[in-house]
UniProtKB/TrEMBL annotation:
This is Polyprenol-phosphate-mannose--protein mannosyltransferase. The lineage of its organism: Bacteria, Bacillati, Actinomycetota, Actinomycetes, Micrococcales. Belongs to the glycosyltransferase 39 family. Pathway: Protein modification; protein glycosylation. Residues 57-72 have a biased composition (Pro residues). The chain crosses the membrane at residues 108-127, 205-223, 230-251, 257-275, 328-346, 367-387, 483-500, 536-557, 569-591. It is a multi-pass membrane protein. Its main location: membrane. Residues 413-610 form the Protein O-mannosyl-transferase C-terminal four TM domain.
Length: 611
C-alpha cells in the first residue's frame, strides 16, 4: 500500500499478542480497542483509599494486562462495521498510530516542533564552529587523511610535525606516498565534502562543516522517528530537543571525527527499518484481509509481502556505516534480528497459524538476503578510490606477493583482503596507555569523558581580558549532559522491566541501538581484553539513549490518559526536560571551546574523573 507520508520512520502502538485459532481462520481483527485505550473498569481510588469490593467479588483487573480479544471473522461482522483490513490495521499498528496523521494539530506541531528543535541544534552546532582554530584530538588524523584522500585518491603521508603549517593554511605539504590508515574511507570522504563546501582545507570551519550538518540532520531524523515510534508529536519533539542539547551530540558535531558519521548511518538504517515495519504491516493487513473477505484462510500460512524496499535502503545505510567504522557490523547483526522479530510478531498478531515457520521462510531469509549482501556490496564499493589508484596503500600487494593470501580471488580483492587482515591485527592488538581511556561500564553515566582540547591563558594573553581577576580557560570536552545520561541509565532498567511487563515492541526498539553500540565494547575491555577505548564512542548510540529516557515517560502518559495523575505526570516530565536543558546551558561553554574564567571551568567540572 502507499504510505500516508514521507517521514523518515513509521511505527505505531504495540500490538496485543493473539492466540492463534485451533481451527479455520479466526484472526485478529476486532473492534475492541487495546487495553490502554479502554475505559478503566474501576474508578481509580483517591489518595490512599482502597476501593470497596463486595464479598466474594473477583479482584480488579490488572492495569498492566493486555488481554487478547477474540477474532471476529468477516461472516460474523455486521455489514455496517469496519472492513477486515481496517480492523487488522488497528491490531497491527494501533489506533494511536493510525490517528496520528489525521489530526491537523498533530501534523502542525509535528512539523513546527521539528523546525524549532532543528534550529536549536543548528545554533548550538554552527556558532563559532571554527573555534578553536587548531586540530583537536583525532582531527589530526582524519582531517588530513580526508584532505589527501580528495587530492590524491588515497590517504597520503605527511612530513614530521605537519600540524602547525596545516593550521596556518599551508595545507599542501603532504607527500605523494600512501599512508597506512586503519579505518574505511566513507567518513573521510564526508569530511572532504564538507571542506569543499566550506571553502577548503585552510578553514577550521570547513574541517567541521560536515560533522555539524550531520549533527543537525540527526536531530531532524530523530524527531520524525520518535514521533512515529511513540505515536506522539510531543514526544518526537522532545526526543529531538534532548539530542539537540546533549553534550556528546554537540561536541561531535563540532569536531571532525568519524564516530559522528557512523552515528548518522546507523540512525538512518534504524529509521528505514521502522518505516519497513509499518509498510510491511499495512501490506499484511491488506492481503490477509483480502484472503479472509474472499472466504479463504490463513490458519497455516500467510501471504508473501513482496520486495521490501525500505530494507534495501537499510542495507545500503548499514554498508555505509561499516564503510565508516567496522563497529557498524554490530548494528547489522542487531538490526537484522530486530526486523525479523517484528515480522514474527506481525504474523502472529495477524492470526497466521504457523506464524513462526511462515515468518522464518518468507520474511527472515529474504531479510538476510536483502540486508547483509547489500551492506557487503556497498562496503566494498566504498573502497572505489582505493581500487582505482595504483599508489594506494597495499594496492599492489597481490602483484608483489604472487601465491600469497586468498589466491582464488582477483588480485585487487586479494590485496584488499590483506589490507583488511592488517587492519584487523591493528584493532585487536591496540593496547597503549592513554589518560582518557575508559571502561565501557562508565560510558552510560559519562564517568570518564574525553578531553579533546584544553587551554589556559593568563590575563592579557590569548584573548583573556587584561583586567581579568583570574586566568581564562577554553575546553572542548566530550561529555554528555550528566543529568540526561544518569536518568537514561536508570531508564534502561525501567525500559527492560516495562518491555517485558507490557510485551511492548517499542522497548526493544529503543534499546536496540544501545545494545549494538555499547555492549560489544565490553569484550574489548578488562577482564577480557586491554584494548584502548574511549567514552566518546558512545556518540554512536546517543540517539537511543535519548529514546530510552523518553520511553518510560511515554508509558506514563499513555497509562494516565483521561485518568487521575495525568497532571502530575506532565509536570514531572516538564521539570525533567527543563532541568536537562538548564544543565546544557551551564556546560555549553565547555563543549564549544568558548573562553570562560578559569574558576567557572573549575566549578562546572565537579568530578575529578571529568578532568
Amino acid at each position: 500500500m502507499t504510505e500516508p507520508d514521507a517521514d523518515a520512520a513509521a511505527v505505531g502502538e504495540p500490538p496485543s499478542p493473539v492466540v492463534a485459532p485451533a481451527t479455520r481462520a479466526r484472526h485478529l481483527a476486532t473492534d475492541a480497542p487495546p487495553r490502554d485505550e479502554q475505559e478503566p473498569h474501576e474508578r481509580e481510588p483517591q489518595g490512599d483509599q482502597e476501593p470497596a469490593q463486595p464479598a466474594g467479588a473477583a479482584p480488579p483487573p490488572d492495569p498492566w494486562a493486555r488481554p487478547v480479544p477474540p477474532f471476529v471473522s468477516p461472516s460474523d461482522v455486521p455489514a455496517d462495521e469496519r472492513s477486515t483490513e481496517t480492523r487488522l490495521l488497528e491490531r497491527l499498528l494501533g489506533r494511536r498510530r493510525l490517528q496520528l496523521d489525521l489530526r491537523v494539530r498533530d501534523r502542525f506541531w509535528g512539523w513546527f516542533g521539528t523546525l524549532v528543535v532543528t534550529l536549536v541544534a543548528a545554533a548550538a552546532r554552527l556558532w563559532q564552529l571554527g573555534q578553536p582554530q587548531t586540530l583537536v584530538f583525532d582531527e589530526t588524523y582524519y582531517v588530513k587523511d580526508a584532505f589527501t584522500l580528495g587530492e590524491l585518491g588515497f590517504e597520503g603521508q605527511w612530513p614530521k610535525e605537519p600540524n602547525p603549517a596545516f593550521e596556518s593554511g599551508d595545507v599542501f605539504t603532504f607527500l605523494e606516498k600512501a599512508s597506512y590508515v586503519v579505518h574505511p574511507p566513507v567518513g573521510k570522504w564526508m569530511i572532504w565534502l564538507g571542506m569543499e563546501a566550506g571553502g577548503g582545507a585552510t578553514s577550521a570551519f570547513a574541517w567541521r562543516l560536515a560533522s555539524a550538518v550531520v549533527g543537525i540532520l540527526a536531530v531532524f531524523l530523530l524527531v520524525r522517528i520518535a514521533r512515529r515510534l511513540f505515536s506522539s508529536s510531543l514526544m518526537g519533539v522532545l526526543a529531538g530537543l534532548l539530542l539537540a542539547v546533549d553534550g556528546e551530540a554537540i561536541v561531535h558535531s563540532r569536531v571532525a571525527l568519524l564516530d559522528q558519521f557512523l552515528m548518522l548511518w546507523v540512525l538512518v538504517a534504524f529509521g528505514c527499518l521502522v518505516m519497513d515495519r509499518e509498510q510491511a504491516r499495512r501490506r499484511l493487513a491488506a492481503r490477509v484481509g483480502s484472503i479472509l473477505d474472499a472466504g479463504g484462510t490463513v490458519a497455516r500460512y500467510g501471504p508473501r509481502l513482496g520486495f521490501r524496499w525500505w530494507r534495501l535502503a537499510a542495507g545500503v545505510s548499514l554498508g555505509l556505516a561499516c564503510g565508516t567504522k567496522w563497529s557498524g557490523l554490530w548494528f547489522v547483526a542487531v538490526f537484522g534480528i530486530l526486523t525479523v522479530l517484528w515480522d514474527l510478531a506481525a504474523r502472529r498478531a495477524a492470526g497466521v497459524g504457523r506464524w513462526w515457520e511462515d515468518s522464518l521462510v518468507v520474511d527472515a531469509v529474504p531479510a538476510f538476503v536483502t540486508i547483509v549482501p547489500t551492506a557487503l556490496v556497498v562496503y566494498v564499493a566504498s573502497w572505489w578510490s582505493w581500487f582505482t589508484h595504483q599508489g594506494a596503500y597495499l594496492r599492489q600487494w597481490a602483484a608483489d606477493n604472487p601465491g600469497a593470501g586468498v589466491t582464488w580471488l582477483p588480485d585487487p580483492l586479494r590485496s584488499l583482503v590483506e589490507y583488511h587482515r592488517q587492519m584487523w591485527d591493528f584493532h585487536t592488538g591496540l593496547s597503549s596507555e592513554h589518560g582518557y581511556a575508559a571502561h565501557p561500564l562508565g560510558w552510560i553515566v559519562q564517568w570518564r569523558p574525553t578531553s579533546f582540547f584544553w587551554e589556559k591563558d593568563a590575563p592579557g594573553t590569548g584573548g583573556c581580558p587584561a583586567d581579568a581577576a583570574d586566568a581564562c580557560a577554553r575546553a572542548v570536552t566530550s561529555l554528555g549532559n550528566p543529568l540526561l545520561w544518569l536518568l537514561a541509565a536508570l531508564a534502561i532498567v525501567a525500559t527492560v522491566w516495562l518491555g517485558v511487563r507490557l510485551r511492548d515492541w517499542r522497548a526493544l526498539a529503543v534499546l536496540s541501538g544501545t545494545v549494538a553500540g555499547w555492549l560489544p565494547w565490553f569484550a574489548y575491555a578488562p577482564p577480557f581484553s586491554d584494548r584502548t577505548i574511549f567514552t566518546f564512542y558512545s556518540i554512536v548510540f546517543t540517539p537511543w539513549v535519548v529514546l530510552t529516557l523518553l520511553y518510560p515517560m511515554v508509558v506514563a502518559l499513555e497509562r494516565t490518559e483521561d485518568r487521575p495523575g495525568r497532571g502530575r505526570t506532565v509536570a514531572v516530565i516538564t521539570v525533567v526536560v527543563a532541568m536537562i536543558v538548564a544543565v546544557s546551558v551551564v556546560f555549553y561553554p565547555l563543549w564549544s571551546g568558548m573562553q570562560v574564567p578559569y574558576p567557572y571551568w573549575q566549578s562546572v567540572m565537579r568530578l575529578e574523573s571529568w578532568i
